[in-house]
Amino acid sequence: MPTCRPVLLIVAAADRDAQTYRRWCLQNIAAHYDVALICEKEPTWQRPWIIDAEVADPANEEELLAAGRALRRRHTLAGVMTWTEWYLVPAARLAHSLSLPATPASALHRCRDKAASRAAFARGQVPSALSVSVRTEAEAHEAAQRVGYPVVLKPASLAASMGVVRADTDDELPFAYGHATCAGGGKVEKTPVLVEEYLAGPEISVECVTHRGRTTAVAVTHKTVGMPPYFEELAHVVNANDPLLPRVAPAATAALETLGVTDGVSHVEMRLVDGRPRLIEVNARLAGDMIGHLVQSATGIDLARAAADIACGHTPHLTPSRNRAAAIRMIYPAYSGTLTTREIDTDFADRTDWLDQVTFQREPGTPVVLPPQGDMFTARIGFVITTGTTAAEAQARSTEAYRNLTIRVAPE
Predict the structure, then answer these.
(1) pLDDT tens digits, one per residue of 107-155
(2) Residue 4: its pLDDT value, please?
(3) By CB distance 3.0 to 4.6 Å, which of 91, 198, 307, 324 could disulfide with 11?
(4) pLDDT for the residue numbered 401
(5) pLDDT: is 192 or 340 the higher one?
């Protein structure tokens, strides 16, 4: 039934991992906007929260534009957005072709291309990592000698730590280069490899909202990464009263300004080296791993709605309404194999009011594959989300929840 609400066009992936990690985005946006969707296959789980859809490959510019024009013929579109990394540039081009507000596609290309980001950071004097783009293993060896071990190798594009690996010596470099080169199975993007200085220090991200060129840093996410020499993200925590926020917000704001991001929600990753922020990368979209949900749970700020508001040219609501902490811990197997059991103690779950969510994204009988043969998309079994009055309490509770899980894997 038609409504008086603005219609927002969302371009997004439709796979099962999107269902697990982006359903909250769609639910939150649909509470305030009518949603029209473009995705690569017929919508299923999205149906309760959308009013219309077109099936098209968002990576195909002609298909995407045709789908967008078809939806515009049926609706008065107020904006276009995406939370899918691969579709940032195509969605921006679609928005501009429909005369709707968006960050310039050229700026989003700089965000997506980590080599271009590093060059922009250097020009803008934003503290970053020394980085060299290479296309052969021989070039990687030469670059590692120039940068100095340890080094980090990563694809210049992609996301979610896919293909990111550390090498400490010349002997480790061939494997690292091969791992970075083969990330994503070559199915999504062909991309050169970067050889970068290893930044030793705690890893964080700053969740930012930019509207008409003005950025507000709303939260800091503290990350736990592991499975060396890889950088798989194991856990995150957000604290509404994080004292680090005013210290790192200027670096995040400078990075977005340098790259030319004018509108949208961004996830700015950095490491603290000797207490000072050094930029890793800018993801000009809502963060993955349920981080936006953590921000809302801890502060009350709805980043999904903020992204929708900005896409439609409206001023986002960024006033905090909560004052607590929220944590997520990912569920990984101890080794690769076939998942046979995944469950949580029901008595524990029923009596625990701080257990916000337990989600399993793999069914028993399916394979789970750790690096180097796999990545987070093939290894993760699910996650638990907990809350607390402080970050330490929320994290301790996530550990307690983890201990009440039963995970069994039949090894390969």
Answers:
(1) 999 999 999 999 999 999 999 999 999 989 999 999 999 999 999 999 8
(2) 82
(3) 91
(4) 97
(5) 340
- Nearest-angstrom CA–CA distance, 82 and 85: 8
Q: How far apart are CA 104 and CA 209, in angstroms?
A: 16
Chain-centroid distance of CA 192 in Å reads: 21
At residue 187 the predicted structure's pLDDT band, cuts being 50, 70 and 90, is very low
393's CB contacts (< 8 A; 6+ apart) are 325
> For the residues of 252-314, what is the DSSP string, one character each?
HHHHHHHHT--SEEEEEEEEEETTEEEEEEEE-S--STTHHHHHHHHH---HHHHHHHHHTTP
User: What is the pLDDT at residue 14?
Assistant: 83
Q: Which two tokens stand for residue 14?
A: 């439709």
Q: How far apart are CA 127 and CA 276, in angstroms?
A: 9
Instruction: Please say whether the dihedral angle defined by the alpha carbons of residues 154, 187, 191 and 55, taken in this order, is positive or negative.
Output: negative
Helix ranges (DSSP H) in 31-86: 61-74
**Edge-to-edge strand list for the sheet holding 151-155:** 131-134, 193-197, 151-155, 165-167
* Cis-peptide, bond into residue 150, ω within 30° of zero: yes
Q: What are the chain's domains?
A: 7-102 (3.40.50.20), 130-197 (3.30.1490.20), 199-323 (3.30.470.20), 326-412 (3.30.470.20)
**Average pLDDT for 357-379:** 91
The size of the chain, in residues, is 412
- Crossing angle of helices 291-299 and 303-311, in 10° steps, is 110
How far apart CA 10 and CA 67 sit, in angstroms, is: 11
The candidate with the shortest Cα–Cα distance to 102, out of 114, 112, 89, is 89
The Cα angle at residue 268 between residues 385 and 383, in degrees rounded to 5:
15
